[in-house]
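seq:
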Amino acid sequence: MPDNIKPEHSIYYATSLLLENIWENPDILAMDYVQSYYAYNLTGKISFNLYILCIDYLYLLGIIKIRIEGGLEICI
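struct:
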C-alpha cells in the first residue's frame, strides 16, 4: 500500500469495491465505460481516472475482458 495517500484512494481499495459492486450487479459490465462509471459511482465516490485504472488492473489480472460488441465480461 502506498503510504502517501489515504487507503480509500488507492487502486487496491477502489478495485475491491468495484469487484464487490460487479458481483452484486453484473449488468454494470455490459454498459460502456462512461455508463458503467456512473452506475458504479452511485455507491462509491471515486474519480473517473481511478475507475479506469481499476478496470485496467482487473484486465491485467485476467478477471475481466473486453467484449467485441462493447462492454466488459467477467472471466472468473
